[in-house]
């Protein structure tokens, strides 16, 4: 009896040891995948972090901690990214450890559930699936195929070739952080960009934030000095620079366009613009999420004028009459209640116009 106990315990120990060894071998070293069509490398490092590098898609590059807990036939695989994000996933090892699938559903667990299959992660907003192989030769990339430029687009293709691999410096000069500070950059940062293998940088600039609001709409000198310094640092490091005219309407303004202040001075009672720094912003985000949700829910065969008008009334009705004034005629662009109200109105209008293909209660 004593010998049997020892045998059973030894077997359990061996099973546990085997599981741990499998875990260590699987989540170590380099794996290769085609992520969003581009060749990517996933490296599991000894410090408990994983690093994703893409040959062309900088948005998918990251280094983050992870956990992998063995379950029956798979691992519960979570990314440790903080900020209230649980990022739950699942990992499955196949083909004797030569292939591994990882599906991650990004978001807090209160809203995003752990996928039951790796493929299910792709059905969630912002979900990601990695189909990993130990051999890089098993991965194909859209960049492997040479594309001959059409004659009419030859110049665009040539410009793209010259720019090479680029990085987008979003928020560098436009004060995206809530504290109003621009993202700081040093000469060492530009050198690091070059050493990382990039050949160009794109700098999106909302010029209107740095210009006076009266003719001749002069751009701030200190801001220009910063851009000059940036360009010099890029050139010093052999980086091509793409300066983006992100939003500077003054450069195109004709006699038909005037500023809200001028419109009010001329007698306009209510003024709306597409800008977020003035009241009554007219933004298409107020319409489309709810409109398309209503169209899909009704399985509408087409979008009618009645459905469009219903969407407009739903948006207008979001402002209670007691709060209605000349500077508050529209809900805010990111009011989460708008899409629901618009979707319901569009569904009802689809039924009224007889274009729904499912019964609406």
Q: What report would you give on this structure?
A:
The protein has 361 residues and is an alpha+beta fold. It contains 8 helices and 11 strands. β9, α3 and β10 form a beta-alpha-beta unit. The protein starts with a helix and ends in a 9-residue tail after the last helix. The N terminus is likely disordered.
What's the story with the biggest beta sheet? 8 strands, antiparallel
> How do the strands line up in the largest sheet?
1-2-3-4-5-6-7-8
- Tally of extended strands? 11
Shape: globular
The chain-level mean pLDDT equals 82
Strand content: 15-25%
Helical fraction equals 25-40%
Q: Helix and strand string, N-terminal first?
A: HEEEEEEEEHEHEHEHHHH
**pLDDT < 50 stretches:** 1-22, 176-180
Distance between the termini: 68 Å
Q: What is the alpha-carbon Rg in Å?
A: 28 Å
Q: Total number of helical segments?
A: 8
């Amino acid at each position: 009896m004593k010998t049997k106990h020892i045998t059973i315990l030894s077997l359990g120990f061996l099973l546990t040891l085997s599981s741990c060894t499998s875990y260590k071998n699987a989540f170590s070293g380099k794996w290769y995948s085609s992520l969003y069509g581009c060749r990517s490398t996933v490296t599991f490092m000894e410090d408990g972090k994983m690093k994703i590098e893409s040959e062309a898609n900088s948005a998918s590059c990251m280094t983050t901690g992870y956990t992998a807990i063995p379950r029956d036939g798979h691992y519960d695989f979570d990314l440790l990214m903080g900020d209230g994000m649980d990022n739950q996933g699942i990992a499955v090892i196949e083909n004797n450890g030569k292939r591994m699938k990882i599906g991650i559903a990004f978001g807090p667990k209160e809203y995003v559930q752990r996928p039951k299959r790796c493929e299910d992660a792709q059905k969630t907003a912002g979900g990601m699936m990695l189909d990993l192989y130990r051999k890089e030769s098993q991965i194909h990339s859209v960049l492997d195929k040479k594309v001959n430029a059409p004659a009419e687009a030859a110049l665009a293709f040539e410009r793209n070739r010259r720019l090479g691999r680029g990085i987008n410096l979003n928020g560098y000069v436009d004060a995206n952080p809530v504290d109003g500070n621009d993202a700081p950059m040093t000469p060492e940062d530009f050198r690091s960009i070059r050493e990382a293998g990039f050949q160009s940088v794109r700098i999106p600039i909302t010029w209107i934030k740095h210009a006076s609001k009266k003719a001749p709409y002069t751009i701030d000198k200190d801001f220009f000095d910063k851009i000059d310094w940036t360009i010099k640092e890029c050139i010093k490091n052999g980086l091509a620079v793409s300066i983006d005219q992100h939003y500077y309407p003054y450069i195109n303004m004709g006699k038909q366009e005037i500023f809200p202040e001028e419109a009010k001075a001329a007698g306009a009672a209510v003024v709306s613009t597409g800008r977020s720094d003035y009241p009554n912003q007219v933004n298409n985000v107020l319409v489309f999420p709810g409109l398309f949700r209503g169209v899909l829910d009704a399985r509408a065969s087409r979008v009618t004028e009645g459905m469009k008008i219903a969407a407009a009334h739903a948006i207008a009705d979001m402002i209670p009459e007691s709060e209605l004034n000349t500077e508050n005629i529209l809900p805010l662009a990111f009011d989460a209640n708008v899409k629901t109200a618009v979707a319901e109105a569009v569904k009802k209008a689809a039924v009224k116009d007889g274009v729904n293909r499912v019964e609406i209660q």
